[in-house]
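Recap quiz, item 2
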Amino acid sequence: MTKNILIVPGDGIGQEVTAVGKKVLDKIAAKFGHTFTYDEALIGHVAIEATGNPLPDETLTKMKKSDAILFGAVGHPKYDNDPTAKVRPEQGLLKMRKELGLYANLRPIKLFDELLGASSIKPEVLKGADILFFRELTGDIYFGEKGRKNNGDTAFDLAEYSRYEVERIARKAFEAARTRRKKLCSVDKANVLETSRLWREVVQKIAPDYPDVEVEHQFVDAAAMILIKDPRRFDVVVTANLFGDILTDEASQIAGSMGMLASASVGDGTGVYEPIHGSAHDITGKGVANPLASILSAALLLDISFGMKAESKTIISAVDKVLKAGFRTRDIADAQTPADKVLGTSAMGEEVLKHI
Ligand code: NAD
């Protein structure tokens, strides 16, 4: 197969880990006889520095033309500490999601057995946990009207959802549940929020179309608690943008580290595949960032956008073998990890390449 992949590293460690993800794609192409061609584009702080725009038109054009996008992260401390900045890196991310119609963010949360000890949750609670989150990505409080009133002393953010927006992501989640353990948990706050009442109404209305899927509804506060107490209870979870943002970071602790989790953002057009972590400026340039989330994002890209199941499994199994061999990056190492097994970003990438 011939495919064009756009590499969008963005900021901070996004640059370091995406370079490793790309090497893994190259190795897969060589092994399976595919031709992957690459282009690269700017987003976030690096794009603001170069063009004044966090998502330059040139980047958007390249994104729309590519077959899939391997993405890094956006963000810079300069903006985190200046809430008044009008042009911000994350505007590039939000605009990309809107422009590409990326309404569903998929986050598989699966713990590699070797990393049971890396989580702060007890191993016996965690073992076997395997959750697929569907976070709605283009609606909710992030995209509604926002502003200030009362001379700037009062601020507001409007949360909005339409039936159509809820239904299209709920259907994707139901379909995924069918291919897994056939359980769907819809998370909302229907006891308080009108958007959540619409959300629950829509999920209940379409549920009869999937009689083989067992559906439960949880309030977000209860879901946050269950996730830590009994994560194995969940199979597929579908939720709104804000709740999904928070719950998936919480769930990242099941997998031991933010550096282990990949995500896919899909919808009407080109899919975007990225680690769930941010630009991590505390470790940028030190060569210690864990590249496995980017490598696993490449695996998701091959599976979802190109239907390359065997290629995707090859990557996941290579990661598994490297972890079984005892290799760790700093974020997933523990007191028992021998010093010579603690690797930096590129060395960890090289180990994975050896197993492909
Ligand atoms: P972060 O994910 O960048 O970092 C959180 C912590 O996890 C840090 O201690 C970091 O060192 C560690 N970490 C993250 N990824 C790691 C990896 N691959 N290997 C080892 N350790 C890793 O989140 P943050 O510190 O809250 O935010 C930093 C910047 O990233 C901010 O500007 C924020 O806006 C941005 N951000 C961007 C995205 C995105 O692009 N999708 C997501 C979250 C945060």
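Residues 10 and 43 are 5 Å apart (CA to CA).
Residues 13, 17, 73-76, 80, 90, 93, 258-259, 277-280, 282-283, 289-290, 293, 331 surround nicotinamide-adenine-dinucleotide (CB under 6 Å).
End of item.
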